[in-house]
Amino acid sequence: MDRPVRVLLDVNIFVGNIMAYDRGHKGTATQTLVSMVSGQQWGIANPAQLIISFEMIDTLEMVLRRLKYSEDRIKSYSGSIVDIVKYGPDALDPYLILGGEERFAMPDVEDAGVLATAVGAKADILVTDNLMDFTTKDASAVETQVVNTTSSARRTLQALRYEIGNVDLIVAHPFDVMQWMRLGYDFTPSTLWDVIQKSENEFGL
């Protein structure tokens, strides 16, 4: 890719990151992803531009309050995320949603807002642990891998693709994103999707 990869990390990725640190974990998928966008780096060769909306920041702060984090730490954490966005290679501001959620037939308004943010800000990839929440009739889907997790046992992951106007967006689980990075995949959405589809056919998923 000849420009920064535009990355939207869902709220659950940021929550998973801070919880992993508090539990003494190191090198989890969520920690690695947040660390990469913090360093404005995506994989080995690409710069990264983080995308987030004001609504997502509000949701993050609400979740952290529910988890009993102190107000000082919440504000420090959300403030650092805003700085990552503003001082990224594209020097963006948090996205202000001015409508668009209604175009997606999704049961959760917050998830629709996240998808609207990704589309409105022309993200290349949206990383989330809640893939099922982002599956709509407008998305193409490809199964990617079967994983064993402590929370949900055996689970088949999938990647989604939204092509809306001049926006091409891949929605994927952090496990898949980390694997694609290790394999050196190009994160240009059309190129990445072709490789994902080929892999599905090769492994018979």
Helix content: 40-55%
Largest sheet: 7 strands, mixed
Poorly predicted parts: none
N-to-C order of helices and strands: EHHEEHHHEEEEHH
Q: What does this molecule look like?
A:
With 205 residues, the protein is α/β, with parallel strands linked by helices. It has one domain: 5'-nuclease (Rossmann fold), CATH 3.40.50. It is built from seven helices and seven strands, in the order E-H-H-E-E-H-H-H-E-E-E-E-H-H. The chain has a seven-stranded mixed sheet, with helices on both faces. Helix 1 crosses helix 2 and helix 3 packs antiparallel against helix 4. The longest helix has 16 residues. It is globular and about 45 Å long. The relative contact order is 0.15.
Describe, in short, the structure shown:
With 205 residues, the chain is α/β, with parallel strands linked by helices. It is built from seven helices and seven strands; from the N terminus they run βααββαααββββαα.
Set out the fold topology.
Blueprint: E1 5-9, H1 11-22, H2 29-38, E2 41-42, E3 46-51, H3 54-66, H4 71-86, H5 109-120, E4 125-127, E5 140-149, E6 153-164, E7 167-172, H6 174-182, H7 189-203
Parallel strand pairs: 1-3, 1-4, 4-7
Antiparallel strand pairs: 2-3, 5-6, 6-7
For the structure shown, list the relevant keywords.
205 residues
